[in-house]
Amino acid sequence: MANPPESWKYHSGASRQRTPRQPAQSAQPVRRAPARRAAPRRSSLEARYAPQAQKRQVRRPAPPQPAAQRPVQRRANPARPARRKRRASPLPWALAALVSCLILGFTYVWSAREALPVGADVSGAVSQPEPAPAPSVGECVFRSGGDELPQEVQDTLTEWFVRCYDASARLEAPELDDLYGPGAAAQEACLLDEASVDFISQVRAMQPVDLTMTGFTIGLTVEETSWESDGGCTVTLQEDDQIQFAFLNGRTSSSCGIENTFTFSADGKILAHEKTEDGFNLVRDVYSHQSSSGEAGIKSTLSQLMSAAKSDVDKLASQRQEYLANPSGQSSIQACNMAYDRQAAVDYARQWVGLTAMTRNPKWGIYDDYGGNCNNFTSQCLYAGGIPMDIYGYDTQQWKWYSDVPNSYSEARGRSSSWSGVDEFYTYVNENSGYGLAAEADGNLYTAQPGDVLQYGADGEWKHSVLVTEVVNDANGQPVEFLIASNTTDRIDWPMSAYAYADVRLIHVLGYNN
């Protein structure tokens, strides 16, 4: 074979000399470390937020030793003194709570101030909101004549009566000022009406029974309407009511024949008002004698009336305590030889008292327009119970009605003043002897029985007579209240204590002598 060119010796290895392979020796082979893999590249965010790798250190347990060779290690536990635990002071917490309260309070006041318009009173914002008005417990309806009135007048009348009765139901004073016109006379009428309802409520609140109302219905009967040239009107109407007083547990007490006269402006506002009812009459009578008018006069009127009413109520409370201490000791010692039919008297009373309109017995005189028909009514009741007319004696010693003509002679003609007069009948009871009515005046009120007569007064003036129809006992069976029947105003099953008149005296009917 020819020799290869010179350049081949670097490429083919043909000219290189081979070194013979040496036999393997017994030395340990050389181990090469595996090639390290390059870590993957990380982004800048991964490099910043990725957790650093931590080397795991695996602690291998030492091989177990035989039990005989295992050393026993004993640790010395020297006694250590007990360390007293320090109590944390409450002062920092209290200061923190105080600061928090101050911050919250300041934030609330500031937010309330920001919520108010400019110039508003901030004190009203932080105070408690006024409670919503209590819902009405009754209603007012027109029985007749309401359609002839303008709608504004109907609305004002309905609202006026409902507000007054709702206030009486809660034994409070009403708020009526938005129903009256702007004039001085209208504002005075408003003050008098509010004071009248307030006075009645306060007198009822002093009584021993619960005279709040659980319900009522008011009926209005329009009798006459006169129109003014400016568009206003004057309305005369009769008021009746059916009331459920709380202590009677749903039983209804009725009134009717209460006359009201309202004067209205063209827009339906009240300009004047008159009401023929005991509480309203008392307030107006006392107010007319005050040296000042307006709110000062009203305040003085209420103060005077309430002082007298409290004295009268306390007097009746003392009588009840006397009765409870010795019921048998309160009986009358006066004698008579003829009995009185109490049930017949009560039955007559129930027959001739109207529920929604006045009713009168045409056989007798009617004195509603002459000071009231109240004593004429009670005289008729006693006569129905068997008490005979008394024509003997002179004037106040007689008790008779044969005609409507006054007659003081001892004859069966005409009428005596004691038949229809409150004070005159009281005088006859005290002065009569022998023939005729046997009764006892000014006895303990709580000895009253159905068929007896009660008389109401104020400031020493006696104004009204009624007939007892029922005795109401307390839980112990002792008398605590009386239901009555009356004319002018007509009332049936009406509580004795619901009157605005707080002064009451008893005429206890025993019978009669023949």
Describe this structure in words.
The chain is an alpha+beta fold and 514 residues long. Helices cover 30% and strands 20% of the residues. The chain has 11 helices and 11 strands. Strands 1, 2, 3, 4, 5, 6, 7, 8, 9, 10 and 11 form an 11-stranded mixed beta sheet that branches. A hairpin with a 6-residue loop joins strand 3 (233-245) and strand 4. Helix 4 packs parallel to helix 5. The longest helix is centred in the middle third of the chain and has 32 residues, at 294-325. The chain is globular and about 95 Å long. It starts with 43 loop residues before the first helix and ends with a strand. Mean pLDDT is 85; it is low at 6-19 and 53-58.
What are the main properties of this structure?
alpha+beta; 11-stranded mixed β-sheet; 11 helices; globular
Question: Spans with pLDDT under 50 lasting ≥5 residues?
Answer: 6-19, 53-58
Distance between the termini: 191 Å
Radius of gyration: 51 Å
What is the N-to-C succession of helices and strands?
Answer: HHHEHHEEEEHHHHHHEEEEEE
Averaging pLDDT over every residue, what do you get? Answer: 85
Structural class: alpha+beta
Share of helical residues: 25-40%
* Major sheet attributes: 11 strands, mixed
Q: Write down the overall geometry.
A: globular
So how many helices?
11
Estimate what percentage of residues fall within beta strands. 15-25%
Secondary structure: number of strands: 11
